[in-house]
Amino acid sequence: MYELKRKEGRARRGAFSTVHGTIQTPAFMNVATCGAIRGAVSALDLKELKCQVQLCNTYHLHLRPGDKVVKELGGIRKFTRWEGPVLTDSGGFQVFSLASLRNIKEEGVTFASHIDGRKIFMGPEESMHIQSNLASTIAMAFDECIENPAEYNYVKKSVARTTRWLRRCKREMSLLNSRDGTLNPHQLLFGINQGSTYEDLRVEHMKQIEELDLDGYAIGGLAVGEPAQEMYRIIEAVEPYMPEEKPRYLMGVGTPVNILEAVYRGIDLFDCVMPSRNARHGHLFTWAGIRNLNNAKYILDDQPIDEACDCPVCQNYSRAYLHHLFKANEMLGMRLAVMHNIYFYNTLLEKIRFALDQGQFEAFYRQHRESLALRI
Question: Are strands 138-140 and 188-193 parallel, antiparallel or unpaired?
Answer without folding.
Answer: parallel
